[in-house]
Amino acid sequence: MTLAQLRLATPRQLKALLLPHQQGTDHVRRALRNLLDESPALVGRTHRAQQSYWYCTPAGLAEAAASGELASTAGRTTGKRIAASKTGLREHGLALVDTVVAFHQSQVADHADWRVEVAHPTPAGTLVPDGVVLLADGASAFVEIDRTMSYARLVAKLERYDAYRNAPASGRGNAARAPRSHWQETYAGPSLERPFPVVLFVFAPAPRRAAPTTREAAFHERARRVGSVNYRLTVATTTLPRLTHDGADAPVWRVVGNGHGEERRALATLPKAR
User: Fold this and answer.
1) Of 48, 49, 42, 51, residue with least CA distance to 78
2) Which of 21, 82, 180, 197 is 20 to 30 Å from 186 at the Cα level?
C-alpha cells in the first residue's frame, strides 16, 4: 500500500515508515521478497550502486486499488520508470519520500495521508504539486521538492499556485451556497472555514548544484515578488537536511515575504493565508 501511494522507496525508508522500532531492515526486505515471489509479482525492484529501489507492479497497483483504502487510484503509475531513471528523477522521488518520513516521525502527518502528483485545474494550465498532505490538525499543505530546477521554473510553479488560488468559482451553486472554486471545494471544508493550504518548498542536495541553503535564499529573493505571496498565499521553505535532522514540527520553516527576515518557525505557527 505504501509503495502504491508513494511510487517508490528504499527498504530503509519503508522501515522508517512502517517498522520504526525494528533495529534493521531485514524484516522489510523479507516482506518485499515475498511480494516479489507472488504470482504475479506485486512489486518490482531496480538495483543501482548497491542500493535497491522498490515499486509496485501493475498487479500490485490493482491489488492496492481493490482494497479500497487508497484515496484515489486514478492516474497512479508503477514507479518503474522513476526507479530506473538516470536523470535525477529517482533522487527527486526519494527526496519526497524522505520528506514524508520526516513528517511521519514528527507526527505532523501520517504517511498514509499523502497524495503524490495530483492534478489541479487552473486558468493558467494544470497545477501538479509534488505532494499534497493532510496534516494532523485537519489542514492541508502543498509540498514541492527542488533538487535541480531553475529559479525561473520554481517561480513559474509558484505563479501557478497563485493562479489556482485566484481562479474564479465554477458551477452555478444553489440556494444553500454560492459557487465555489476548485480549491474551496477540495480544501476549504464545508463552511469555508479553512484558508488556502500553505505551500511548502523543500530544497534537497544535488551534485554540481549550489547548496540547499544557497538555493533557498535565492528562491526567497524571487518568490516574494509573486502576486499574492505573503497575503493570500503563504509560502514557506526549508532544506531537506534541516528537515530530516530537526523534524517537520521544529522551527525549520522560513516564510517567504517582506517582514519575515531570516526567522524560522514551526509548521503550526506559520501565518494563515487570508
Assistant:
1) 42
2) 82
Ramachandran region of residue 227, left (φ > 0), alpha (ψ -120 to 50) or beta? left
Q: Which three three-digit cell numbers place residue 171?
A: 458551477
Residues in contact with 50: Cβ distance below 8 Å, sequence separation at least 6, in sequence order: none
Half-sphere exposure (CA, 13 Å, Cβ side) for 46? 18
* C-alpha cell belonging to residue 254: 522560513
The dihedrals phi and psi of 6, each to the nearest 5 degrees, come to -100, -5
The confidence score (pLDDT) of residue 76 equals 61
DSSP 8-class letter at 24:
S
State the Cα–Cα distance between residues 28 and 95, nearest whole angstrom.
20
pLDDT digit string, tens, across residues 59-89: 999 888 898 887 655 556 677 777 777 778 8
Q: Which residues contact 166 (CB under 8 A, 6 or more apart)?
A: 227, 228, 232
- Residue 225 CA to residue 29 CA, distance in Å, equals 47
Backbone φ and ψ for 111, nearest 5 degrees, come out as: -65, -20
Regions of the chain with pLDDT less than 70: 71-77, 171-176, 258, 260-261
pLDDT of residue 36: 94
Closest residue by Cα to residue 264 from 272, 274, 98, 248: 248
If phi > 0 it is left, if psi is from -120 to 50 it is alpha, else beta; for residue 173 that is left
C-alpha to C-alpha distance for 25 and 120, rounded to whole angstroms: 37
Pairing assessment for the beta strands 198-203 and 235-239 based on DSSP bridges = parallel
pTM: 0.93
